[in-house]
Fold this protein.
Amino acid sequence: MSGTLAALGTALSQDVARYALGGVLPAHAVRPSTMAEAAEVLRACAADRLSLVPWGGGVALESERFPGRYDVALDVGGLDRVTVYDPDDFTVSAECGVTIATLRARLHEHGHELPLEAAHPSRATLGGVLAANASGPRRLRFGAPRDRILGARFATGDGVLARSGGRVVKNVAGHAVHRLFVGSRGGLGVLLEASLKLLPLPPARVALAFGCDAATLADPARWAGLARREPAAMTVLGRGLARGLGAFATDEPFTFVLGWEDDGAWLETCEAFACDRFGSPAQRTAGDGVTAVWQ
């Protein structure tokens, strides 16, 4: 390291090998363990005019193109603490390096969930999901990450620590700057901590996979009344993608996946409706296994 960045010492330094972006490695990689350290790295990079890229789990960044200049990778994985969690408020505040799987397990203990999906939840971080405003098949019913965030702490490009919003709904006031960060892909600053609204775990879950052809998908009679049953997730996979995923492979050109999360009696009604319209499912998944399906 050189200049102001070198003044931080080697305690934060990481092997650059795992931080390739578009096939290019950064000159330096650092992993702070506190928000103050993260802000200090940003200040040092600003002083030395170094280009910095925030890293979480690297789930999406690995396929991104090279930005033209890449001096420092800022790994926020060391910021992985759940800072405030009061189950009675149905809100949680956590540092943005925590993985989706870790956060999900913590909330599950108290009968809560945060409806955020990630392709690799054991690697994907809260900050990465928020920065991409990434959603899974339940987005239509439960909204995007931008709809769940109540407040955030972040560091600007020149290393200033700032806060926007609050930790609970009743304390959220002023301009919702934190919502601008969701989907900004790190262009406005680095998200370090976020407060979000939670949901209770549903009493029951079910996911059904049906093999179908194009004529079935284009038949309006098949779909009539489905929207009134408010499925939690609905998606269509081509045969190649379904086989690539392995779980839903059928001999039909398409695989239609439909799911509900609600009380058991309502799920039985919805499942009977789906089978009446689309036939017997090629695969049925119930209970906790449905969460893996949404991934």
Observations:
- The first strand starts at residue 28 and ends at 30.
- The longest helix spans residues 264-278.
- The chain is about 30% helix and 25% strand.
